[in-house]
């Protein structure tokens, strides 16, 4: 990695930790400069302003999430041909990954940017919206494949069910931090996994 790329990555790493700890408004350019040991001109060489920094943070966070989902659910598909069993395995692998984080999930930048939406321009609001739609499309495809094989026990909207994945994960992050119980998040994912398993379980007729 070239020196310029290393500096940019360092700024993003420090900024992400600070934003997740105290919000975007509570994170100043001055403290990022001090923490990274660069000059003010060095910071502005990489990011025109805080809004530009926020965009870079969001894109990096979303790309990383996508990479994790690709790896986990790709592995699950390789191991299980059945769409339902593949999804259930993927959720179990995701839960195990999150359970292995020593201090729990650090937080979701997309959620943070949503909480403080008024601080950002429309570009960042649109990045957030597109991220939510990206995750909706990903999980909707999985549920559509499942529905094609397993009729659900109750009528459902694939988009709403797909959104529940993000809702459980984002809500689990908030809950685990509020309770100071890191294992709450992977536990919530397993509860949702059980719900999906029951939802597509064949009805037993007397």
Please write out the topology.
Layout: H1 3-22, H2 29-36, H3 40-46, H4 50-79, H5 83-99, H6 109-115, H7 122-149, H8 158-179, H9 184-199
Helix pairs in contact: 1-2, 4-5, 4-7, 5-9, 6-7, 7-8, 8-9
Question: How would you explain this protein's 3D organization?
Answer:
The structure is a single chain. The protein has helices at 3-22, 29-36, 40-46, 50-79, 83-99, 109-115, 122-149, 158-179, 184-199. It has 9 helices and no strands. The protein folds into 2 domains: 1-47, Arc Repressor Mutant, subunit A; 50-199, Orthogonal Bundle (Tetracycline Repressor, domain 2), CATH 1.10.357.10. With 206 residues, the protein is an all-alpha fold. Helix 4 packs parallel to helix 7 (122-149) and helix 7 packs across helix 8. The relative contact order is 0.11.
Q: How many angstroms separate the termini? A: 65 Å
Shape: elongated
Percent of residues in beta strands = under 5%
* Overall CATH class of the largest domain: Mainly Alpha
**What is the percent of helical residues?**
over 70%
Strand and helix order: HHHHHHHHH
The total of helices stands at 9
Mean pLDDT: 89
Count the E strands: 0
User: What is the CATH topology of the largest domain?
Assistant: Tetracycline Repressor, domain 2
CATH superfamily of the largest domain: Tetracycline Repressor, domain 2
Key phrases:
Tetracycline Repressor, domain 2, 206 residues, mainly alpha, Arc Repressor Mutant, subunit A, single chain, 9 helices
Short description:
The protein is an all-alpha fold.
